[in-house]
Amino acid sequence: MEPVWLTFLNGTDVERLALGDAEILDAVEAGLRAQGRGETVIEPRVHLEPDPAFRGHFNVLRGYVAPLGVAGVKVVGDYVDNYKLGLPSEMALLNLFDPRTGMPVAILDATAITEMRTGAVTALGARHLARPGSKVLGHIGARGTAYWNVRLLDRIFGFEEIRVHSRRPESRTAFAERLERDLGKPVTVTGDWESCVRGADIVVEASRLPEPEPLLKTEWIAPGACVIPYGTMSAVELSLTDVMDKIVVDDWGQCRTGRFGALRAHVESGRLTEDTLHAELGEIVAGTRPGREDDAETTLFWHRGLSLSDIALGAAMLEKAAALGLGQRLRYA
C-alpha cells in the first residue's frame, strides 16, 4: 500500500491562519444551511466524566456534512477549575475523515475552533432572532467562547452599549479590556447579573456554574429581547420559556437528551417539547422556517454546540492552510 498521510494543524498553525470574522461566520453558516437542507448526519453528543472530584468532563461530538465531503469527531474537555492551572477551561481535538473510506484526513487543535464556532452560532442565531436594530448587549460569562460571542455579535449589530459580567472580578475586567482593545469601543463591567441583563436587547448567558442555579431572572428580560443561554449548568428560571414567543435550538436531537444544558429542566418538565419548539436554526438559515417576524417578539435560542459547526470551520481552516502552506504532514500508514 502506498504511504498514507494526514495533516496536523496545531494551535500555532490555527493562529497563523488568522481567519477573519466573515470567514468564520460564512463557514459556520454553510454548515447550518446544510443541516437545514437535510444534508448532514448528527449523532447526539456523549459525555465521559472520569471522576466527579475533577470537576470536569469530556464531550464527544460526531457528524457528517455532505456538501463538504467530510465527517468528523471532536473530543473537548470542559473543566471549570482549569483557570487555577493557567489552562483554558475547554481544550479540544478535531479529527476529520473521508466519509467514503473512513481514511483519516486531518487532526486539528480545536480549542480555538470551539471558541470561534460557538461565537459564530450565537451571532447567527441573533442575526435571525434578534431585532435588527438591537443596540444593547448584556453578556454573562468570560470564558473562551465569550470573546467570540461578543466580537461576532458586534460585527453584525454594531452595539451602542456592551455590558459584561462574570463571577470573578479579575476575569470580567480582563475580558472587558480585551474587547475594548479589539472592538475599539467602551465596554461596561457590571458587578451583578441584574445590571448586566435588565433591559438589554440581546442577552447571552455563558456562565461557568458548578451546578444549576437560577441566577438569570425572567423579570429582567425586556419584551422583544433575544435571549441566548448556553451554560453547561442551567442559570435560568423555569419561567423563562413562559415569556417567549419563539424558542429555537441548534439541534433538537441533542437538546432533548443528555445531562447538561441551559434548558435541561425545561425539557424534563415538559415545558419545552417538539410541539412548543419553533424551529432549529438550520431550518431558518436554509429558509424553510421563519426567524423573527415582528419587533415585538421575545425570542430564545438555545444551542448545545453542533459537531457540524466544528467540522465546517475545521474544513475551512484545512483549505486555507493548504493554500498558505501551513500545517504538518504526518504519516498514518
Automatic annotation (TrEMBL):
Pfam families: OCD_Mu_crystall. Transmembrane segments: none annotated. Gene3D superfamilies: NAD(P)-binding Rossmann-like Domain (3.40.50.720), ornithine cyclodeaminase, domain 1 (3.30.1780.10). This is Ornithine cyclodeaminase family protein. The lineage of its organism: Bacteria, Bacillati, Actinomycetota, Actinomycetes, Streptosporangiales.
